C-alpha cells in the first residue's frame, strides 16, 4: 500500500477519486505526506461532497468551522444597531421651544454722527399668554454701547422699549453700513435666574432660554455722504434701501422754494421701489423737481427698469421733457443704458 500511495504523488490532484481520498485519509501516512499527495484535492473533494446528496464524512470539522466563521461574519452585520443611531438622534433631538418674545426691528439701525451720542430704540413684545417673560440684552461691544434697561420682565402679551446708545466716536465705523464686529443678543426666559447663568453657556443660551441675535447697521446723512464721496456705490445703495428718506441728501442744492425736488414718488422711483410707486398712485405723476424732471426721468437715470415699466403702466408720459429738453429716453442714453431693458420699455 505504501508503494501504491507513493505512486499517487506523480498524479495530479484532480485525478484522485473519492475512494482513493478515503484510503489516504485512513492510512498511517503522516499528515504532511497526505498534503503533498492530495494538494488542494481536500478542498475540492469537500466541495464536491457538499454539493452532492450524500454528505462527506471525511472532514466534518472543516464544515463546522466554515459554518462558525460564516455566522461570525454575518452576526456583526445583523447585530449592528443600524436603526439605533437614528433612534438615538431622534430621541436626542430637542423639541422646538416656544418663542417667548419678539423684537420689532430686524437690525439695530444707528444714525451715526461723529463725536456725538447716537440713540436708537428697540421694541420688545411678549408672546407668552399667561406668564411674565424675563429678558436680558447683551452686546459684543460693551465699551461702545449702553443699553437701558439692560434687563427686565414683560407681562403676558405686553410690550416694552429699550434704548441703545452709542458712545461718542471720533471716527466713522471701520465697516459700514453693516458692522462686522458689533452684535446684540436678546435673551428671554420664564425664569430670571436662568438668564444669569446664560453668560457661562457657549452661544449665550441654554435649555429654556430664547435668543434673538441682531446686527448693527450704521447709516445716517454723514455716512451716506462719506460713502458717496468715496464712490462706494454698494454702501450708498444699502443705506438708501434701509433709509430711503435720506435720498435728498445726495442732491441738497435741489431744495429750493416753490419746487418739489424729491417728491416721494421720485425717491421711490430712484431706488426701484415698485411697491411704493404703486402705493403713491397716478396722482403723484405730475410732480417735478427744480430741473423739470418727472419720476420717470429719475427712474430712467437710475437704470431701474422695473420702476420705469411700472411708471409707464401707470400713465407716465414718456415724451415729457425736462428743463433741458430731454425725454426719459434721452436721459437713459446719456447714462449709458444703451443695451438695457430701460430703452425697450421707453
TrEMBL record:
<dbReference type="InterPro" id="IPR008962">
    <property type="entry name" value="PapD-like_sf"/>
</dbReference>
<dbReference type="Pfam" id="PF12796">
    <property type="entry name" value="Ank_2"/>
</dbReference>
<keyword id="KW-0040">ANK repeat</keyword>
<dbReference type="InterPro" id="IPR036770">
    <property type="entry name" value="Ankyrin_rpt-contain_sf"/>
</dbReference>
<dbReference type="InterPro" id="IPR002110">
    <property type="entry name" value="Ankyrin_rpt"/>
</dbReference>
<keyword id="KW-0677">Repeat</keyword>
<dbReference type="InterPro" id="IPR013783">
    <property type="entry name" value="Ig-like_fold"/>
</dbReference>
<protein>
    <recommendedName>
        <fullName>MSP domain-containing protein</fullName>
    </recommendedName>
</protein>
<dbReference type="Pfam" id="PF00635">
    <property type="entry name" value="Motile_Sperm"/>
</dbReference>
<feature type="domain" description="MSP">
    <location>
        <begin position="91"/>
        <end position="219"/>
    </location>
</feature>
<feature type="repeat" description="ANK">
    <location>
        <begin position="291"/>
        <end position="323"/>
    </location>
</feature>
<dbReference type="InterPro" id="IPR000535">
    <property type="entry name" value="MSP_dom"/>
</dbReference>
Amino acid at each position: 500500500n505504501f508503494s501504491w500511495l507513493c505512486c499517487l504523488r506523480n498524479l495530479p490532484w484532480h485525478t484522485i477519486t473519492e475512494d482513493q481520498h478515503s484510503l489516504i485519509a485512513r492510512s498511517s501516512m503522516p499528515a504532511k505526506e497526505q498534503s503533498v499527495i492530495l494538494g488542494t484535492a481536500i478542498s475540492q473533494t469537500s466541495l464536491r461532497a457538499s454539493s452532492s446528496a450524500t454528505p462527506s464524512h471525511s472532514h466534518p470539522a472543516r464544515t463546522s468551522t466554515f459554518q462558525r466563521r460564516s455566522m461570525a461574519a454575518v452576526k456583526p452585520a445583523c447585530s449592528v444597531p443600524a436603526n439605533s443611531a437614528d433612534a438615538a438622534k431622534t430621541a436626542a433631538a430637542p423639541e422646538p421651544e416656544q418663542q417667548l418674545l419678539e423684537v420689532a426691528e430686524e437690525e439695530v439701525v444707528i444714525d451715526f454722527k461723529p463725536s456725538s451720542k447716537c440713540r436708537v430704540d428697540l421694541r420688545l413684545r411678549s408672546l407668552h399668554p399667561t406668564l411674565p417673560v424675563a429678558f436680558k440684552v447683551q452686546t459684543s461691544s460693551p465699551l461702545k454701547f449702553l443699553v437701558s434697561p439692560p434687563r427686565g420682565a414683560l407681562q403676558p402679551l405686553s410690550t416694552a422699549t429699550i434704548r441703545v446708545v452709542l458712545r461718542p466716536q471720533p471716527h466713522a465705523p471701520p465697516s459700514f453700513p453693516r458692522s462686522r464686529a458689533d452684535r446684540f443678543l436678546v435673551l428671554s426666559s420664564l425664569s430670571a435666574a436662568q438668564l444669569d447663568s446664560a453668560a457661562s453657556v457657549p452661544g449665550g443660551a441654554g435649555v429654556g432660554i430664547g435668543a434673538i441675535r441682531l446686527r448693527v447697521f450704521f447709516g445716517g446723512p454723514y455716512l451716506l455722504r462719506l460713502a458717496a464721496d468715496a464712490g462706494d456705490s454698494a454702501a450708498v445703495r444699502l443705506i438708501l434701501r434701509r433709509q430711503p428718506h435720506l435720498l435728498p441728501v445726495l442732491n441738497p442744492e435741489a431744495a429750493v422754494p416753490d419746487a418739489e425736488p424729491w417728491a416721494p414718488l421720485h425717491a421711490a422711483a430712484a431706488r426701484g421701489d415698485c411697491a411704493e410707486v404703486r402705493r403713491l398712485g397716478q396722482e403723484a405723476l405730475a410732480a417735478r423737481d427744480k430741473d423739470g424732471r418727472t419720476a420717470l426721468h429719475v427712474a430712467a437715470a437710475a437704470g431701474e427698469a422695473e420702476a420705469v415699466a411700472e411708471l409707464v403702466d401707470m400713465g407716465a408720459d414718456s415724451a415729457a421733457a425736462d428743463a433741458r429738453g430731454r425725454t426719459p429716453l434721452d436721459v437713459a442714453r446719456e447714462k449709458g443704458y444703451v443695451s438695457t431693458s430701460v430703452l425697450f420699455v421707453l
